[in-house]
Design brief:
Layout lengths: L2 H21 L5 H10 L12 H24 L4 H6 L2 H13 L5 H14 L4 H10 L1
Helix pairs in contact: 1-2, 1-3, 1-6, 1-7, 2-3, 5-6
Length: 133
């Protein structure tokens, strides 16, 4: 099972959910979650995944976003800030949070995964792109 494929799907879903939330009257974390939950495997980028892989990506992304929501609530930032937030800002918040935890492993994984999904030029995505050609 390809990590690239899964990450690409994670990125596509995140992107889709964020675009939906940005265009909604009332963007909320739960709307973001619902969008991910209701997303179908219709997107061209998601067709390569098995049903099981797709479910896994949905669950991972939802869990990551709920965790991110908690961390952002700690620094009094909500969904609107998240939707407009630059990746370096989000990363800094997560790094600061990780430093305050006894076991920062989980948050480190979250940070890497979000960074890989949100950064157009991330090496993992570049590599995956090159494999396609």
């Amino acid at each position: 099972m390809s990590q690239h494929k899964m990450l690409h799907a994670y990125r596509t879903l995140l992107d889709f959910a964020m675009r939906t939330a940005i265009s909604a009257e009332n963007a909320t974390w739960s709307l973001l979650g619902k969008t991910i939950e209701k997303a179908e495997q219709v997107d061209h980028d998601l067709e390569e995944l098995t049903e099981k892989e797709f479910k896994q990506v949905q669950e991972d992304l939802q869990a990551d976003l709920m965790q991110t929501a908690e961390y952002l609530a700690d620094v009094e930032k909500g969904i609107d800030e998240f939707l407009d937030m630059d990746l370096p800002v989000l990363e800094q918040i997560l790094i600061d949070k990780a430093l305050s935890l006894a076991d920062p492993t989980e948050i480190t994984v979250l940070r890497f995964r979000l960074a890989a999904a949100m950064d157009e030029n991330h090496p993992i995505l570049q590599e995956a792109h090159q494999h396609k050609h």
